[in-house]
Amino acid sequence: MTRPMRLGIAGLGTVGASLARLIHDKREVFAMRTGRSIEIGGVCARDRDRDRGVDLSATAWFSDPVELAGQGEIDVFVELIGGAEGPAYEAVKAALNRGLPVVTANKALLAHHGVALAKLAQRRNTTIFFEAAVAGGIPIIKTMREALRGNSVSRVYGILNGTCNYILTRMEKEGLAFADCLADAQRLGYAEADPTFDVGGFDAAHKLAILTSLAFGCEIDVEAIFVEGISEVTAEDIRAAAELGYRVKLLAVAQRTESGIEQRVHPTMIPAHAALAQVDGVTNAVAVDSDLLGSILLAGPGAGGKATASAVLSDILDLAGGDATPTLGVAPAVLAPYKRARMRAHEGGYYIRLTVLDRVGAFASIARRMAENGISLESIVQRRAAGDSNDEIAPVILITHETTEAAVRRALDLVSKDGHLRGEPRMIRIETLD
Ligand code: HSE
């Protein structure tokens, strides 16, 4: 048998601890499958004394991940620290500079530095594997980097944040408050260290930026993504969506358009009968539209220790078997510059929630502003918010037919200036997913 492959694991949180246990518990299976035994050659974590369910007392401990990456007696550096800058970034560079392959779950790092790191990896004749960085346990990176190589992708989209999907599902099904659902997601180890990354849509944007590069063979440009999170979505929006035959999901979408590649993350109403609408809780789902395959949909656990460790393990076992696929699927020099599409040209229907001061002419004026901007209304419904005894204001929900985002924004701006509203209008895009 070939000599053991020694891992240096930086970060022993939910995922790292899960990985360490699995390396120990399944060592015979892994050795049999790869022809090489997998060992832990060094670890780095802040708290050495914490019980992680695995005995690491005989393992070399490092207090600095850069030291582990640069000097540890290891063959592969596994980065599970997180964060786009700081120790994770420095340690990954140190490992690559030594010519060591890197396995990482760090989407923020790749979204911000993926191309530079891919170039460094190529110069040092090594690679970065990152199955765990996108959609937790779903093997979407392998699928896009390898299985779909013969296809031309036109769109990749899906539910990429387990925490948001968990929150939206529980708000809808159990009528719970946003804050309680978020606290549970944190307790279950789904949320990022800073959960505003989840609820603000940034975590999904980091993942989308990576998928966009793999889908379209372009450089990663996370700054070009339109991002809107779920913190403004109310229980009332979710209820209204259900009554109209929709469900609210945080959708991440990258698609080729005539003006370039559109990338966006935002709450979306999707038809309740659509396959994506059935994806509940921490489950993620990614759909890929391509010329040869049409549409495929992959779904599975998007966060949590075991699911993410499963993806990290698949990379480790691939490396043990000699896989050296380039980081972003192709040589970095082949990646096209990212060309951003004009976001405002996006067409689709819209859900609009207004809090209208209930007086003569208000509705007529709103309808006129819509018509002036070429927006055709599918429905306009006045609702009474639960527990609201204020007769002066009326929550109103408008559903538009297909129109452009620019037209909706223009019309809502005028409606606001007309002085008929209390507070800001809320708008959620409707995606037909055809
Ligand atoms: N916080 C992330 C999520 C973890 O909720 O999906 C996986 O990246």
Q: Name the poorly predicted regions.
A: none
Structural class: alpha/beta
Tell me the number of strands.
17
CATH overall fold name of the largest domain = Dihydrodipicolinate Reductase, domain 2
| CATH superfamily (homologous) name of the largest domain | Dihydrodipicolinate Reductase, domain 2
Bound molecules: L-homoserine
In CATH's first tier, which class of the largest domain applies? Alpha Beta
The biggest beta sheet reads: 11 strands, mixed
Task: Tell me roughly what share of residues is in helical segments.
Answer: 25-40%
* Continuous helix count: 14
Q: Could you tell me the strand content as a percent range?
A: 15-25%
- Total domain units: 3
Shape: elongated
Mean pLDDT: 92
- Radius of gyration, in Å, reads 24 Å
Proper CATH architecture of the largest domain: 2-Layer Sandwich
Oligomer: single chain
Distance N terminus to C terminus?
52 Å
Overview of this protein structure:
The structure is a single chain. Strands 7, 8, 9, 10, 11, 12, 13, 14, 15, 16 and 17 form an 11-stranded mixed β-sheet that branches. Strands 3-2-1-4-5-6 form a 6-stranded parallel β-sheet, sandwiched between helices. Helix 5 (107-123) runs parallel beside helix 10 (202-216) and helix 13 (362-372) packs antiparallel against helix 14 (405-417). The chain starts with a strand and ends with a strand. The model has no long low-confidence stretch (mean pLDDT 92). The longest helix has 17 residues, at 107-123. Helix content is 35%, strand content 24%. It is elongated and about 80 Å long. The protein has helices spanning 14-25, 27-34, 65-71, 87-97, 107-123, 140-147, 162-174, 178-187, 196-199, 202-216, 235-243, 305-320, 362-372, 405-417, and strands at 5-10, 38-44, 61-62, 76-79, 102-104, 128-129, 153-159, 226-227, 246-257, 260-271, 283-290, 294-301, 347-357, 377-382, 393-400, 403-404, 426-430. By secondary structure, the protein is of the alpha/beta class. The protein is built from 14 helices and 17 strands. The protein has 3 domains: 5-133, NAD(P)-binding Rossmann-like Domain (Rossmann fold, 3-Layer(aba) Sandwich), CATH 3.40.50.720; 140-301, Dihydrodipicolinate Reductase, domain 2 (2-Layer Sandwich), CATH 3.30.360.10; 344-430, 2-Layer Sandwich (Alpha-Beta Plaits), CATH 3.30.70.260. The protein binds L-homoserine.
